[in-house]
Amino acid sequence: MSWSDKGQRIRVLLLKTDWYLCFGLVFLACVLIGLSAAAFKLNAVLNDADALPIEAVAINGERNYTADQEIQVALQDLMQRSFFSADVNQVQQALEALPWVYQASVRREWPAKLKVYLIEQVPVAHWNGDAWLNTYGEVFDAPVKEGIPNLPSLTGPEAQGKSVLTTYQQLGELLTINGFSLKSLSLSARHAWHAELNNGIRLELGREDSMTRIQRFIHVYPKLAAQDKKVGVVDLRYDTGLAVDWDDAQTESR
Q1: Predicted local confidence at residue 247, as pLDDT
Q2: What is the reported pTM?
Q3: How many other β-carbons are positioned within 10 Å of the β-carbon of residue 144?
Q4: In angstroms, rounded to a whole number, what is the distance separating the alpha carbons of residues 85 and 43?
Q5: 186 Cβ partners below 8 Å, 6+ apart?
Q6: E strand or H helix at 224, and its extent?
Q7: Using the 8-state DSSP alphabet, how is residue 65 labeled?
Q8: Cα–Cα distance between 249 and 235 in angstroms, integer?
Q9: Looking at domain 56-120, which CATH architecture does it have?
């Protein structure tokens, strides 16, 4: 075979190689375009609220203070999205922004439902007049609702809610087992404790040894009750003894 024949054969092979390469590239481009178009179409369908709407929201959990209408308003905009495009984290945040909701968990349930589990705040005390304390001693703001039980009134520095609640529970337990009921407890800016019982008696407990001072009051109260006078304030800020302020007269018992 001459060199010219060999050169011609090489050119033919190169042309065939180029043709296969071009065909392969065109085929790959078609596949990529097709996949992109399919992905675009799928994305459009998944985000189409008319094609895949959220048909229902199932709310579970005990609710005493959060109405269905409040939940509907909170989720109104989010419900305009499709089942797949709805962000469950945003739904959770919208629900937890409701004043009486403590915690919310949200998950999708095929084919068109969101399942929500709500945990409400459990108020255990009024805090500084217009707020509440929950069972963990956390402060929260919420409107007054029907069905809230008669709760004690606690006051103190903003960051001391948990401390005040703990002290209230300790003192309240001691008083309750001795026939008294603690109506309110206050911690001043100087960290002095002031208490009021349901019978109207006010107790000045000072900064320390509040449990010991409450026990002293319980021990001496039968003697105070035997008097033909109404007890107003009992000052227990003494190492021993106490001072009594009667409603109709003032005297001291030491």
Answers
A1: 81
A2: 0.75
A3: 10
A4: 9
A5: 154, 155, 156, 193, 194, 195
A6: helix 210-225
A7: S
A8: 15
A9: Roll (3.10)
- Cα distance between residue 205 and residue 190, in whole Å: 13
**185-205 CB burial, b ≥16 within 10 A, e <16:** bbbeeeeebbbbbeeebbbbb
Tokens of 14: 């190169």
CA torsion sign, 213 to 214 to 216 to 222?
positive
Tokens of 154: 């606690």
197 φ/ψ angles, rounded to the nearest 5 degrees: -90, 165
The rounded distance, in Å, linking the Cα atoms of 94 and 103 is: 11
The DSSP 8-state label assigned to residue 160 in this structure reads G
Q: How far apart are CA 253 and CA 232, in angstroms?
A: 13
> Residue 48: its pLDDT value, please?
39
CATH code of domain 124-251: 3.40.50.11690
How far is residue 29 from each of residues 25, 54, 113, 173, 254, measured CA to CA in Å? 6, 37, 39, 78, 100
**Could you tell me which residues are beta bridge partners of residue 155?**
186
CA-CA-CA-CA torsion sign (67, 72, 130, 157): positive
Residue 7, classed as helix, strand or coil, is: helix
Q: How far apart are CA 54 and CA 39, in angstroms?
A: 22
In tens digits, the chain (254 residues) has pLDDT values of 544 544 455 454 444 555 555 555 656 666 566 555 444 444 443 443 444 577 788 999 999 999 999 999 998 887 777 666 778 899 999 999 999 999 999 998 878 788 999 999 999 999 999 999 999 999 999 999 999 999 999 999 999 999 999 999 999 999 999 999 999 999 999 999 999 999 999 999 999 899 999 999 999 999 999 988 899 999 999 988 899 999 864 444 44
φ/ψ region of 147 (left if φ > 0, alpha if ψ in -120 to 50, else beta) reads left
